[in-house]
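Below is a filled-in request sheet from our internal design queue. Each sheet records the structural input a requester submitted and the sequence that came back. We keep these sheets so that new team members can see what a complete request looks like end to end.

REQUESTER: design group, bay 2
PRIORITY: normal
MODE: inverse folding
CHAIN LENGTH: 274
BACKBONE (tokenized):
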């Protein structure tokens, strides 16, 4: 027996009810705080590109009012405005994706899928981007893996990991993807030779809008939503994701997903109730 067990008071029914009520209130308060934090983050993120666009367009208008706008200036400013619009668009697309996935009733299309083919398709699409930055990407797989997955969601999850491997890399670096399987799960490992993630940030990188180095990430066009989307997509499959990283040496993400998709009780209930 632990000392605490011996000293545990007998709760009356009223006390138990009061305790449960307080716990529920605490939980609701936490949920509300997290919702408020999210709305505040979203507003802030959407405002930043807007502010830049406003400054750029106002400068152009001002210049036009005092005389001719030099061609070079016009082009430079318009390119910057166009980049800000791209950024705004990316944030909104990512947000919609995330909100959709986090909904309890998210629609999933599970299909028997050749995972090797799926990863090959992703690599084919990302190779030109990697080559532009002189990053080598490769795939290692031992045998064909057939698993029950939502192809779109898994593609999104793994694309984000590989894109990060390319983005947060060094000159002439590499991204290596490997596949493995046992009786129950398949494993996707995405390893890179990049800048690495400090230990204290590793627990937070899956949070929405979290970035390790805000100025650096902004420079390379991150929204801070990629890993949150990846995590949600992995969880939809009842899988798990882990990160290992050493600052200055590189990062490895490992995703583990069951070969067979099984609905949870909650999902079955949600489906039954329409
Ligand atoms: P972002 O859109 O900023 O890339 P993510 O959610 O994808 O957002 O990642 C969150 C942060 O985690 C990034 O801003 C970056 O600082 C860090 N990060 C993610 N992947 C890697 C990686 N492979 N190597 C180094 N840092 C990474």
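RETURNED SEQUENCE:
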């Amino acid at each position: 027996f632990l000392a605490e067990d011996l000293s545990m008071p007998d709760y009356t029914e009223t006390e138990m009810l009061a305790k449960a009520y307080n716990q529920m209130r605490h939980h609701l308060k936490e949920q509300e705080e997290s919702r408020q934090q999210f709305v505040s983050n979203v507003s802030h993120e959407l405002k930043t590109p807007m502010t830049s666009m406003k400054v750029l367009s106002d400068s152009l208008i001002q210049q036009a009012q005092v005389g001719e706008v030099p061609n070079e200036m016009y082009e430079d400013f318009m390119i910057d405005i166009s980049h800000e619009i791209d950024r705004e668009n990316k944030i909104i697309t990512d947000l919609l994706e995330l909100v959709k996935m986090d909904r309890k009733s998210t629609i999933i299309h599970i299909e028997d899928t050749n995972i090797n083919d799926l990863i090959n398709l992703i690599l084919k699409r990302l190779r030109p981007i990697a080559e532009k930055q002189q990053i080598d990407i490769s795939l290692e797989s031992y045998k064909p893996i057939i698993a029950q997955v939502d192809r779109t969601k898994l593609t999104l999850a793994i694309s984000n990991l590989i894109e990060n491997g390319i983005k947060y890399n060094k000159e002439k670096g590499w991204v290596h993807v490997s596949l493995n399987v046992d009786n129950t799960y398949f494993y996707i490992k995405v390893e890179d030779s990049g800048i690495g993630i400090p230990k204290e940030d590793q627990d937070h990188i899956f949070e929405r809008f979290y970035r390790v180095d805000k100025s650096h990430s902004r420079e390379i066009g991150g929204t801070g939503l990629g890993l949150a989307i990846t995590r949600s997509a992995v969880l939809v499959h009842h899988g798990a994701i882990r990160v290992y990283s050493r600052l200055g040496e590189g990062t490895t993400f490992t995703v583990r997903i069951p070969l067979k998709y099984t609905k949870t009780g909650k999902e079955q209930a949600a489906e039954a109730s329409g």
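SHEET NOTES:
- The longest helix spans residues 13-66.
- The chain has a mean pLDDT of 90.
FILED BY: M.R.
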